[in-house]
Every structure is written in structure tokens, then in C-alpha cells.
Amino acid sequence: MTMGRNPKLKALSYEANARQSETAQAGRLPNPEVELELSEFAGGGIRKELDSAESTLIFNQKLLLGKKRQKEKRTASLKSAIAQTNMESERLGVVAGVTKAFNMVLIAQERVSLHGQLVDLSKKTHQTVSAHVKAGKVSPLEEVKTKVALSLAQVSLERSKRELAAARHHLCSFWGGEIPNFATAEGELDIHSGLPSLEALLKTAGENPDIARTEIMMELEKSIFDNEMAQRVPDISIKAGLQRFNETQDNAFTIGVSLPLKIFDRNKGNIQAAGHRVNKADQNSLATRVRLVSDIHQTYQLFTGIHLSASALKLEIIPSAKLAFEASSIGYQEGKFGLLDVLDAQRTLFETRAEYLNVLLAYHNSLVDLERLSGIKN
């Protein structure tokens, strides 16, 4: 839906089509001109009437020299190629954006589920403690503590529901929707056992459309420089026509050639400016490559660190927290642990599970960033 309906992609596709039309238009011959000249009339004596007037019909065709037409067409073609890379770059950006938005919905759904479980567990704990209070086994203060824990869990649940609603709206905005037209997002996020190779990511970085755009931009500036150099070559205009002498009823052909004299304006300033822009484009291309490689290195280090954290939470920390909570719950029933021990173990368990969801989202988003930076097409 995003690829077919995203407003930004549609706008860029129109621009790409416009550039293609300009390429088709570029390099065409200038239109010929026709000129009608009437002279030697409305004067004095025999020149008073039109009978002695002279009329001349002239056709004028400008001829472009210095291969200006070919160079103009090449410039238009390069502008069209830049429009295509802009569209491809935006497409990758949109894919990354909608993927992150989808991941956010999945995580938000899991948070709602997690906080819902916490509310259910807090209710059970509160009911158990309330029964113990009525039986005189524990202090009424413990019932108050479980009530506070339940209220906090309910607040967290409501907040997570609102975050889910916001995430759903953000996701559907990628295909131009204003109201989510889906009930739930179906998918599963997990950490992968293997990591992508940094060398492989750097190798494919050359396919990033941002790199291609800077390279095409450099070629475009060179083409513009060639166009400015070509302007030093003057274009000639060829004239041919028919002259009519009304006084003698005679006809004669006329022909002429005009050539501008490059005396005052040799286009020196525009040539120098175009040369500077060629150097600028070269440095921009280098800067883009350096920035891209740096971003890949930084994102990869972040990604590997998040991978380690996610693995530790999933395989070690959460299982340990779960065992601690189960043990404290059983111990509380047997009178070995106090209520604070149970609530602390419960809070630790759900905080670690919530942190795992945060790390999981960061893990998959950094993976999306790596794919975007390396130019991987989905």
C-alpha cells in the first residue's frame, strides 16, 4: 500500500516523468523564422503609393555550432537520471520508515499485552493479600501496597494503549491514510542468531542511491561546463528569401549569413563558475562516501551492542527474573518471604520484559538503518 499510495513517492514519480519529457525536448533544432519586409512606400513623389514599393519575404534558420544540441541533450538526460536516483533514495527511505513504523506497532501491541498481564497478576496478588488481611494473617498495610501496585499497573496499561493508537495512526500515514484500516499488525520480532558482515555491508554501500546521485551530479556539472564552453562558439544564422519590385514587376532572390562577434562577451564568467561547481560536486561526492562509510561503522557497532543486550535479556536475565518471581511467590505463600519481596520480584520481572521489548525495537530499527545505508533493496 505504501509503494502504491505514498504521496512523496507519487510526487517524485511525476518529477521523474517531467525530466524524461524535458530530455525528449532537449536538443531539438531552433524553429525557423519568417520575416516580411515592405520598403520604399508612403514617401514623396513616385514613392507615395505602393506601386513602387519593394517587398521581401525572408526565411531565417539559426544553426547551432559546437555540438550544442548534443550537449544540451546530455545535460537533460543527466537531470533525468538524478530525478530517478532521488526517487530511488526516497523509496528506500520510505521503506525504512514504514518498516520502523510497523515494528513500532508490533512492539506497542506487545507492550499492551505485557501491561495487561501485569494488571491481571496485580489483581490476583491484591485479591490474595486482601483475603489474608480478612483472615488476620497479614497487616492491612500490605493490602494498601498491593492496591498501589495495581493502580500503577492500570495506569501503565492505559498509557501503552494510547501509544499503540498513535503508532497505528503513524503507520497508516505512510500510505496516505488518516484512520487505521486494520485491526492488528501480524508479525513476530526476534533476534537473529547471525549478524550481517560489516565487510559485506560496506561492499554493497556503493549501490546506495545517495552515492549514485553524487556521481551523476558530478557528471551533470561537467556537462554544464561543456555547455558553457560551447557557448564560446558563435552560432550562425542563414537567411534566404524572395524580393519583389512592384515598380518593375521583377523578382529576385536574397541570401545572407549573420555571425555574432565574440568581442565583449566570451562567456568567461559562466565557464569559471561551471568549473568551480565541477570541483564542488567532486568534493560532495567524496564527502558523501566518507559520511556513508562512517554511518555504517557507527550503526554497525550500535547494532552489535544491541544484539548482545537483547541476547542477554532473552537467554539469561528474563529467565532468572522469572525464577526469582516464582520463588518469591511460593515463599510468600509459605511465609518465608514478605510482600515487598514478591512485589520487588514482580516489578523486576516486568521491567526486564519491558526493557527487552525496547531493546528488540532498537535492534530491528538499527538493522533497518544498516539496510538503508548499504543500499539493500527490499
What does this structure look like?
Helix 7 (268-333) runs antiparallel to helix 8. The two termini are 14 Å apart. It is built from eight helices and four strands; from the N terminus they run H-H-E-E-H-H-H-H-E-E-H-H. It is elongated, with a radius of gyration of 38 Å. The mean pLDDT is 89. The protein has a single domain, classed as Outer membrane efflux proteins (OEP) (Up-down Bundle). It is of the alpha+beta class.
Q: What class would the helix/strand composition place it in?
A: alpha+beta
Number of helices: 8
Q: What is Rg?
A: 38 Å
CATH class membership: Mainly Alpha
How many beta-strand elements? Answer: 4
Strand content: 5-15%
Q: Indicate how many domains the architecture comprises.
A: 1
Q: Could you tell me the mean pLDDT?
A: 89
Q: What is the CATH architecture annotation?
A: Up-down Bundle
Largest sheet strand order:
1-2-3-4
* Largest sheet properties: 4 strands, antiparallel
Helix content: 55-70%
Amino- and carboxy-terminal Cα gap: 14 Å
CATH fold group: Outer membrane efflux proteins (OEP)
Q: Tell me the CATH superfamily.
A: Outer membrane efflux proteins (OEP)
Order of helices and strands: HHEEHHHHEEHH
Shape: elongated
* Parts with pLDDT < 50 across at least 5 consecutive residues: none
